Structures
1.
Amino acid sequence: MNVRIALIGEHQFTLLGLAWRVKSAPQMEMAGMLSRSDGVVERAKRAGAQAAVLDIPRADEPEALDVCRALADAGVAVVAYCESQAPGTVERALQAGALGVVSKSEDTAEVLRAGHVVAHGKQHVSPAMQSAAGPVESAEVTPRQRELLQLLADGLGTEDAAMAFGVSPETVKTHIEGLMAKLGASGRTEAVAIALRRGIIR
């Protein structure tokens, strides 16, 4: 099954090379090249994006990190495409909801690899970013992910959680898989147990 991936950023030249690789890559489809302007989340969802590569020129750029959070909350798996390899870059991206973090210094094949991995709910921090970062376990869950964890702790299943959020069950499953990767859990029950132990939920 092909992965539909959107490329998001303000520097179109940066994304053009990626777009060419996505279009020619097996098991990948383009879901558009989008700017970070208002409505980017809705546009990505309308295009059927399962994953998005988000250009983040600076690790502390609030607008880019806000877009990352919004995409993650909408169930779009995000690969943060980072210029900086400064300490804290990986942690900031993961805390903003990204599942993948890749350096612009790496080959575009690494970006495609990350896109495939995160589209299936797994975390992917590229080799260059791993060497430049602290432990990825320091990532925190987003407010939306915390709400979902609380619903799971309260005994709601996927269908009920989807109704509560007003999203599809597939979107909830993507959120759950992302939470499992972020918390290092093998299943939703363990994810809830870890969240309770860490005081993320009560």
Note: Strands lie at 3-8, 28-34, 51-56, 77-82, 100-103, 124-125.
2.
Amino acid sequence: MLIDLTDDQKKLRAELRAYFQSCLTDAQRDQVFSIFHEQAPAFHEQMKQVRSARLALMQLAAADSFDDARARQAADAEAKALSGLALLRAQTVHRVREILTPEQRSRLDQLAQRHGRGSR
């Protein structure tokens, strides 16, 4: 797997999925689906950049001679790609939060806090 999730992250993801399946209205589910569907191409492209940069760095590390400058460029490219991915995730979360009621946002925040994350 490209980006490994911790057990806590997996548990939070499962709880969020269950929460959204049980507490959203049909209209909200459709909106969430639409948001993720719209974001999918951007996530796909960003993940391609992450994979490409990570592969370049791994190849440089495995080379017979190590080029510090090229390795730094590859590491910077990977960091930039991961940063872009984090931004896409934040934008997606924000868009989903916009369609939630205040009570639903509060419950989402409680789940996030229980797992040591701030949702707001």
Note: Helices lie at 7-23, 26-62, 68-99, 102-114.
3.
Amino acid sequence: MSSKASTATAAQQGAQFNTVRAVMSPMPAPINGMATVHEALELMRENNVYSLVIERRRPGDEYGMVVVSDIANKVIAHNRSPDRVNVYEIMSKPVLTISADMEIKYAIRLLGRFGLSRGVVVDGNEAVGFVTLTDMVFRFYEQEARGQEASG
């Protein structure tokens, strides 16, 4: 393999590790907006996640999201029963979607611009996972540190 080809391959592999796809958490099955908050909490617990994507109802509809803080602030804090509140009542919709192939630094800027801590990752038009600002900042920092070690 030529020097140029090996350099290009290394660059492509490095680029894969700098994308949202490399740091995202795979998404459990989306939940229906008519599900109860109790059902959402059970799904969160089973999948060890703190947020869920709400499935689209029809073509052209947008994804929704419910996070633990929505449940805390809109259900528990108001003394509402998780068995009697539907997810659609407390979810955020529409939510910011981020391409799985977007570079991490741009995804960080995008979330920061809107004051968000997480986004739904899409591949094409399908939700495939979640990404948090925290995970991306740490991955970006690790990549920068490795780059400085390699050049220094």
Note: Strands lie at 25-26, 51-54, 64-67, 97-99, 118-123, 126-132.
4.
Amino acid sequence: MLRSFKFVGALALAATAACSSDSTAPSAKSADLTLAGGATASSTNNVVVTESDVARQIEDTPPTRSWVFYTRVASPATGAFVTGPSTPPLGSGSFEMNTPLGTDKGTLFNYDHVGTRLADINSIGYSTYRDPASTAPDVQLPSVNIEVDFNGPAVAGGFTSLVFEPVYNPDQGAIQSGVWQTWNGVPGIWWSTRPINGCAVSPCYQSWSAIVGANPDATILGGFGVNQGSGSGGLIAATDALKLGVNGDRWTYNFEPFRTPLTKDDCKDGGWQNVRAADGSSFRNQGQCIKYVNETLHQD
């Protein structure tokens, strides 16, 4: 399944803004967005995401690209594409956030899945690495957040954020430091930042199937991604392999500090200058890049 949404500038989005007290709320009920550069999302390949794909913005501002890293005003929270830590589940890198204060917050959101029905989602997952240097409570890890219109696009209102946290899913294993762990949101226990059908007073801790069953018209309204903060002071943690499956199709987002060439074509026409070897070293010329592809990926 391929989805493409027409990109709208920040000013146009702001003009139709719907006020919300939730952080990084979408600025329009029916956000009409596209991937940066007009590309379409791939449902079959791993999608490498690097710093060059991401806009950095203050929370509660309209997204200006398909990927946005949001932080709060004057917050020391940071987010960076790094090598490691340890051996990430995909590639050589991950996206690491550091929230020194309890009031800090960082959110890495993707906007390519606006309009997707929650009832069509059959898998959500991600992997985390909690740095042993963290001083936050042992149960703290980045969460998966999804901005949702729980009553569907045909009815006014209905904004909320659905949140998956490993701490509320103990059947998936104890949270550990210094190791990569993989978490599955479907099936899984979630909570809503606002009252929704089936939850009169939030937060309610409900299974994904229960939320979808009580809100059959719910759709993704804004961002889908990872969040760290608002109570996670002292947490240093990395995420990788963020996954979303819809009607059997799957997007897997691989966070990397740089891109590596996957085919010889990636090296041609100056492309060798924009990619690196897996160890982070640069190529001297096109020939060296093509040799790397031939030797590491066994392409003739």
Note: The chain has two domains: 10-255, 264-297.
